[in-house]
Write a structure and sequence with these properties.
Helix content is 25%, strand content 28%. The protein has 1 helix and 3 strands. Strands 1-2-3 form a 3-stranded antiparallel beta sheet. It is globular, with a radius of gyration of 12 Å.
Length: 57
């Protein structure tokens, strides 16, 4: 995988969204799109929910 460096702060995305680097429950890392201003802790919780709800892990 090509290394991607994400800034500590959220990155502006389209239409009031932001990209956040998160850690999924299995320890893997990823990037999710959230509403701008969403706290990092909430982004991590959303990532965990997406991970749980994904049938093919």
């Amino acid at each position: 995988m090509i290394g991607v460096v994400m800034p500590e702060e959220s990155t502006p995305g389209p239409l009031g969204t932001a990209m956040r680097e998160v850690t999924f429950p299995d320890g893997s890392r990823g990037i999710i799109l959230v509403r701008a201003g969403t706290p990092q802790a909430e982004a991590e919780q959303l990532a965990a929910q997406v991970w749980r709800d994904t049938p093919d892990k």
